[in-house]
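Re: beta-D-glucopyranose structure - here you go.
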Amino acid sequence: MMRYDFGVGEKRDWLVGEDRFDDAHQGKGEAIFCQGNGYLGQRAALEESYAGQTRDLLVTGTFDRFDAGEVTELPNLPDLTNLQLHINGQRFAMADGNTENYRRVMDLQTGGLCRELIWTGRDGLRYQLRFERFVSMTREHVLGLRASITPLDGDAAVRAESGIDGRVTNTGAAHFHEGEKRIFDMRILRMISKTVQSEVTCCLSAAHRYTLNGADVSGRMLPIIDRRYMAMRGDFSVKQGQTLTIEKLCSVTTSRDQGYIGLADAAELAAQDGPEQLKAALALGYDALFEESAAAWRRIWDQADVRVASDHPFDQLLLRFALYHLNIMVKKDDSRVGIGAKGLTGEGYKGHSFWDTEIFILPYFVLTQPDTARTLLEYRYQGLPGARRKAWENGFEGAMYPWEAAWVDDGEVTPLWGAADVVTGKQIPILTGMIEQHITADVAFAVRLYQAVTGDMDFMRRCGYEIILDTARFWASRVTWDEGKNAYVICDVIGPDEYKEHVDNNAYTNYMADHNLRLALEAMDDLRKANDEACRRLDAQFDFSALRKKILNVRSKLYLPRPDENGIVAQFDGYMDLQHIDLTPYKQASVVGTIYNDYNNEQISSFQVHKQADTLVLMLLLEDLFDGDTKRKNYEFYESRTLHDSSLSKSTHCVLAADLNLTDTAYRFFEGCGGIDLGPNMGTSDMGVHTASMGGIWQCAVYGFGGVRVVGDQLHIAPRLPDAWQTLEFQLIWQGRKLRVTAARDKTRILNLGSKEVQIIVSGAHVVLPAGGVYDR
Ligand code: BGC
């Protein structure tokens, strides 16, 4: 069971942990305690092996396709965290013997993970063990582990075997060739292996240091090299009460590393640099490396922290947990890589990026780390050739973004087959890669959000306008004419709610496409006004007058479903004719997706039931198109039919409920977001944490209770705290100026920490804040 109350005093809201080892539920801890720095993610599988473990080491951008019938995925690199201990001839494993005083705690403030326990072996003697690890926030290639053993009841002969284990797969798919293994100076182990299809060379290095009561000790050492495996085995005599400590420092480099872009000898460089990175780390030692990394984490917290004074201390911890994961899920300076739906915390969704990034995660980065947001959008810019290819292959013009994206030039990588159909027994075809098309408009929406928040015209000229124009070109070619409706329509899509397939005129898709088309018109106006090199280049590429004509024509007749007599915007054509079923059992289920135990896709498509927010996301993103009454009616209508079976659902409902002044309901959805990865259900995070939910948790606090929103080119701040909260404090970067917002129930304070004036809208009133100025009301 997870526990959230390990911290006392200053540490109260920083520690998340577990107080029991349960081999049936290892996935939860492995994912939520995952450590990383955006370059690599080290899942928190325990050092000693157990059945049911998933020992993942994932490095951003190293995608490989194992087999022609499969899609590309982030390969699981050889494992560096293995450490097998034999104590007085008994293999240490908590499943054997007796374990007491167990606790494993992640310190979100420093990024350090620590496990402590007392183990009684079959010999009836007690041994105290402590394991620590970190992934460096300053040296992206470096990670470290430390294990200490103290025999409490007698002397112990300890055998420690630790090394690099290439006998790893992604659920059976072995992505690496056997490779080359070498031990330098009887100390540095190096394994070089190459992925089978993408030919990415990965170099893993590891070295150990052994101490007894703090003094270096050299045991009887044996080097081991075997098939896909290498290790050092050491034998040590440890007297009762003495502590043997094993430190393991490791480095990871790959030929895809940013430093080698365009170099023909990237593989050789990766192989050489790995041990060099490690040597530099060894010169510093474990403690100094950890401190250096912890200091980097403290700097992140200075910028990133969201503070809340709540009746429920868990709220603060939850926010920090989300911020921790937001800061390890992406390599912040590499525009060749996106954010996986599970980040680098597990093999789920194969490391692929979805609309999760643009709609759920990007707002956090845009408003707090605009440089990171820019690299994420540059990643989409680099994905344009793949998006154009997808459009062309489907008979459309412009750029049609892949529903799932991997390496920049891969294009569409959504798998074609999914789980079992409960009715036919066949595998369910996955249609999202073909017909879940709103992602294209979502990317354009995100570009515009970035432009409004940052005013970064350099990005717009280099990349942003081109994305907006080419995606608009796609929509202009995607619509078809409907005689009956006397309008352009968008048929045969999947909207955000994936429980409905092959629908026509999904409101979200149509409105977002229209928004995309509008952005293109505005972009051409802006470019014409600037009349610069970017204007000339893009005009030559798109032919502004022809494109403008086409877009104006489509927009003037694009079918945008309006609220019906009850104020409801139908999710798609024919929605109101769908059947009602009793959703109570599915709404009350403790796990998601239980409706699939009773019905198949076809049947679910015929019910008024939703996996996740759909029309409501529209009402949040394009909020000025709908009045408060319409939003409230649609909120009530759709929420009652939504199972929240996707981790993307609750945060939308939270923010919308807060907008509608339903703060208690909003707070319950915020708590619900917490339950997705930190709730009592131990199976939810096995494949990795839900990165969109991490962005969603930030949105609940800042968009929901902080009332922050970017509408057009304006920043709105209108706090409304739930009853449980006394204060909420966060920072934003608006137009390059840092703002610190402190909201109490009856008071809002906004400090402009920037060196220039800002204009914002606070609770509906226009406010001009000079540099250093304070709004306090
Ligand atoms: C959701 C999608 C989401 C994907 C990745 C699916 O279950 O329905 O909206 O993009 O997961 O998180």
